[in-house]
Each structure stands twice: as C-alpha cells, then as structure tokens.
Amino acid sequence: MKPDIPRIPQATTKRLPLYYRFLQSFDNAGHKRVSSQELSEAMKIDSATIRRDFSHFGALGKKGYGYEVPTLLEFFRKTLDQDEAANVALIGVGSLGTAFLKYNFQKNHNTKIVVAFDTKAPVEGTTISDIPVYHSSVMLEKLEEYGIELVIFTLPSRSAQQVADQLGTSSIKGILNFTPIRIQTTDAIRVHTIDLSVELQTLIYLIRNEHTE
C-alpha cells in the first residue's frame, strides 16, 4: 500500500528519485544503516537539506542513529510507485528521440517506452530498438490501445503546441517536454519542461561564478 504523502515542496519532490537511487547503492553495498551526512557526501547535497526533505514524511530515522537503509528504501519504493509500471510513449523520433529509444530506461526504473510516433514513420508502423513507431496520424488511437498516460516530447518546437492540443482529448496525464517552448494544456495534463539550452546556460553561469561573492 502506498504511504499517505503530504503536500511537499517541488524541489523536494524532484530529489526523491535521487534518494531512492543512492539508497539502492548503499543497499547493494551491504549497508544496513546510513546517516544524513553519509548521504550528503555521496549525493553532494547538504545534510540539512536531506533532513528537511525527510522530515516531510515523518520520523524516518532517529537522531544520533541515522536511517535504516532497507526501511528507507522500502518507503521510497512505495512512495515512488516502483511496483507499478508506467508505459510511456515518445513523440518525435529525431536524434534525441532515437537516443531515448535506444536507452529506454534501464532496470530499477518503473517506466518504459513502449510506443513512439513520428510524422515520417509509416502508418502501419516500423520498429526502432524493438519499439513500434507509428505515423502521428494514428497517435490518439494507439495511445488508447497501449494504455498510455505519460508521453515524452522530443518533436520539433513548431509542432509541440499542436500535438499538446490533440492530447487534450486523450487520457494522457503527463507530458515530459524537451522542447524549449512553454506548452499550454488542459488542467488534466501536467507538463514538466526540460529545456536543455537553459540547463546548459545555468551550468555555465554556475561554473564561471562559483568562486565569486
């Protein structure tokens, strides 16, 4: 049964998968207990931030003792729905999209790309990295057929809003958007945008200003 989760800050939410990943590493290494300081050193996140993040979920550890790795791992596994697989569709099979199909989320993830769409693909479908790729004209039909709730946008920016509008009539609940535009959708669809150019500019700024006041 999934734990009852209170409303938590978005920044904390984004760190939850990282906690789960590093806890898996500690568990695989045979660690039964871990402190916030040890997590801090491994993850390069301030230990106070880790303790504050964990405090949103109640008493996960003991002061002066730390956290039981198996217990914490089980908690985050349930919190992140790791037991419930999520089938994902990819829209736009260019260079970035093809890379996603080849990677397709390795083990220890509960998500998998099971179908993709592109305007250059045949209506009857083709296969890339063992994943069926169909023409965009049959997208809504195939999304329903595959039971998709989450899609990844790696299509040209000029087409992103139009495709998002089409998805407004579907059962899609989330879009992971790799285009630089801000997509408008219905309230039923949550959009998470990852603008690679912005991320790169942010990294450059941080590198160049790391030692300035």
Automatic annotation (TrEMBL):
Lineage top rank: taxon: Bacteria
InterPro entries, A to Z: CoA-bd, NAD(P)-bd_dom_sf, Rex_bacilli-type, Rex_DNA-bd_C_dom, Tscrpt_rep_Rex, WH-like_DNA-bd_sf, WH_DNA-bd_sf
Pfam families: CoA_binding, Put_DNA-bind_N
Subcellular location: Cytoplasm
Major site of localization recorded for this protein: cytoplasm
Keyword Transcription carried by entry: yes
Domain CoA-binding, residue spans: 81-182
Subunit structure: Homodimer.
Family from the record: Belongs to the transcriptional regulatory Rex family.
Role summary: Modulates transcription in response to changes in cellular NADH/NAD(+) redox state.
Stated name of the protein: Redox-sensing transcriptional repressor Rex
Name of the gene: rex
